[in-house]
Amino acid sequence: NAGVTQTPKFQVLKTGQSMTLQCAQDMNHEYMSWYRQDPGMGLRLIHYSVGAGITDQGEVPNGYNVSRSTTEDFPLRLLSAAPSQTSVYFCASRAGTGAREKLFFGSGTQLSVL
Amino acid sequence: AQTVTQSQPEMSVQEAETVTLSCTYDTSENNYYLFWYKQPPSRQMILVIRQEAYKQQNATENRFSVNFQKAAKSFSLKISDSQLGDTAMYFCAFMKHPYRGGADGLTFGKGTHLIIQP
Q1: What mean pLDDT comes out for the span B12-35?
Q2: DSSP secondary-structure letter at A103?
Q3: Burial, A99: exposed, middle or buried (Cβ in 10 Å; 0-12, 13-18, 19+)?
Q4: Does A57 touch chain B (CB under 8 A)?
Q5: What is the average pLDDT across B19-48?
Q6: How far is Cα B84 from Cα B106, in angstroms, rounded to an integer?
Q7: Any CB–CB contact under 8 A between B89 and chain A?
Q8: 3-class secondary structure for B27-94?
């Protein structure tokens, strides 16, 4: 059981480049989300999805796009990378709404934008 | 909006000692959930303990327990018989009841770096 898989684990981009961070889960979870973690900060919610075809913004959505075409996948797109987007990105999923369902985290993607 | 405050950026204790990490939060919600997450150097986020606000009894998980004071909006984590493997960043997090509407997700504090000395 792989859980939540994020790729790549590390990435270096130049300012203005675009890329997609991949997130996949094999637990048939309805809820998926993306967080970013900056030094000295806790995780902050970027976008989330409560099911295929449904996405919504979190606390810090600017500069990021998401889509949810399947239950398994929830990619995060950076259209034009900026140094302010240098961070560690975490994808997370859970079976449904509510905290009774445990939130499973991926192992993170460390992104540097030069 | 909710805020979560962890006032101890770093703590250091000797192995086998008991340590308490502080967390306070601000919310106008009445139904919500509180969590403590552990992040070791591997970067993995690990759920340590969870508390539902409507439950008066404090949650416990083996060596980990919480002191939940709803009126004071305080949610501290106590680690008993600390072990070297407890060395990590610890994050306090808040989540409002999902059926209240609005944005979903966890609100995290900035974390406490806990170091267990041999």
Answers
A1: 94
A2: P
A3: buried
A4: yes
A5: 93
A6: 28
A7: no
A8: CCCCCEEEEEEEECCCCCCEEEEEEECCCCCCCEECCEEEEEECCCCEEEEEECCCCHHHCEEEEEEE
B92: which 2 tokens? 């306090």
Short-list B111, B103, B110, CA closest to B1: B103
* Rounded Cα–Cα distance for residues A103 and A95 (Å): 8
Q: Please give the residue of chain B at the shortest CA–CA distance from A103.
A: B47
Report the chain B residue with the minimal C-alpha distance to residue A5: B44
Query: Average per-residue pLDDT in chain A?
Result: 92
Q: What CA–CA distances, in Å, run from A96 to B1, B45, B54, B61? A: 22, 19, 20, 23
Which one of B21, B52, B108, B113 would you mutate to disrupt binding with A, by most A Cβ within 10 Å of its Cβ?
A: B108
Burial (CB count within 10 angstroms: exposed 0-12, middle 13-18, buried 19+), residue B72:
exposed
Q: What is the pLDDT of residues A70-111, one digit of tens each?
A: 999 999 999 999 999 999 999 999 876 665 667 899 999 999
